[in-house]
Amino acid sequence: MTNPSLSQPLLQLEGINKSFGGVHALKNVSLSVQQGTIHGLIGPNGAGKTTLFNVMTGMYQADSGCFNFDGESLSLKTSPQVLAVKGLARTFQNIRLFSEMTALENIMVGQHSQTKTGIFGAVLRTPAARREERLIRQEGYRLLEYVGLSKDVADRVARTLSYGDQRRLEIARALALKPRLLALDEPAAGMNPTETAQLQDLIRRLHADGMTIVLIEHDVGLMMRLCQRISVLDFGEKIADGTPEEIRRDERVIKAYLGGDDMPNSGKGAMPIAGTAQGSLQDDHAGTTP
Ligand SMILES: Nc1ncnc2c1ncn2[C@@H]1O[C@H](COP(=O)(O)OP(=O)(O)OP(=O)(O)O)[C@@H](O)[C@H]1O
């Protein structure tokens, strides 16, 4: 397993600002994601987590700030497609599979963005194109197995899969892009406890295999167990950054979650998390590394 303290930042955001009309959704937010770590983003509803995700994956263009990926300074206008080629893939809060395609086809579509033989090879069915197609199919099966989906799921139309299986398929499709950083937006949302436990195992396996992961999740207990570092947003500002242990004890975080008197979101906006907010922040397993 990678020792986070020895690793280099793979992704660095500095002084990011993003407004939607009068809503200042991100206020001078900086984020440094070390290679080989699981980095969590938490915060009450509307804190700016998804906006930050959208900025880091090229879906939104920040108004100002700096963006560095794998040692390369990038324009804030870099598109999601270019970022995907550079090694940054994501899943979405709301599942976005090709619902009428089979599970295998969903994964193969992701890989086709990386084929060498191109459209003419595919149309003319050249030997090189046929060989490439075979390898893509093999890799598709491998990824299905990797995320814990059985072979008989391969030919099923995506919309007929259970919710948990669709979530896993989305991760497999993102992995087909061969990313260096995988951004997972609320992967456990809507999952039952068994599916959540399986997802936790999958994320740990990805981490053990060297993947850098940025994770948004409302289940704070899960975040405390999985992440090596956690950044906390509240009203568009980063209010804390540290290990799960440090986050759990951070006064501003506790107030943001429990709605302390001197906090702007006093008494409202607490996250819908498993158990009480305090209970989750004090999760017994907090800080356990995979
Ligand atoms: N496309 C948009 N247009 C206008 N306002 C937006 C847009 N996206 C986000 N916002 C606003 O920006 C703020 C931050 O929203 P964001 O979705 O990033 O928060 P979040 O922390 O992900 O919340 P949640 O946990 O509820 O998903 C909110 O006030 C939200 O209404």
Q: What's this model, at a glance?
A:
The protein is α/β, with parallel strands linked by helices. It has eleven helices and ten strands. The C terminus is likely disordered.
Fold and architecture overview:
The protein has 290 residues and is α/β, with parallel strands linked by helices. It has two domains: 163 residues, Rossmann fold, CATH 3.40.50; 82 residues, Rossmann fold. It contains eleven helices and ten strands. The chain has a six-stranded mixed sheet with strand order 6-7-8-3-9-10, sandwiched between helices. The C terminus is likely disordered. Bound molecules: adenosine-5'-triphosphate (ATP). The site of adenosine-5'-triphosphate (ATP) has 11 residues, from strand 2 and helix 1. InterPro entries: AAA+_ATPase, ABC_AA/LPS_Transport, ABC_transporter-like_ATP-bd, ABC_transporter-like_CS, BCA_ABC_TP_C, P-loop_NTPase. This is ABC transporter ATP-binding protein. It comes from Aquirhabdus parva.
Distance between the termini: 9 Å
Tell me the structural class: alpha/beta
Shape: globular
Question: Which stretches of 5+ consecutive residues score pLDDT under 50?
Answer: 261-279, 282-290
Number of strands: 10
Bound heterogens, unique: adenosine-5'-triphosphate
Descriptors for this entry?
11 helices; alpha/beta; transport; binds adenosine-5'-triphosphate; four-stranded antiparallel beta sheet; ABC transporter ATP-binding protein; 37% helix; Rossmann fold; L-phenylalanine transmembrane transporter activity; nucleotide-binding; ABC_AA/LPS_Transport; 290 residues
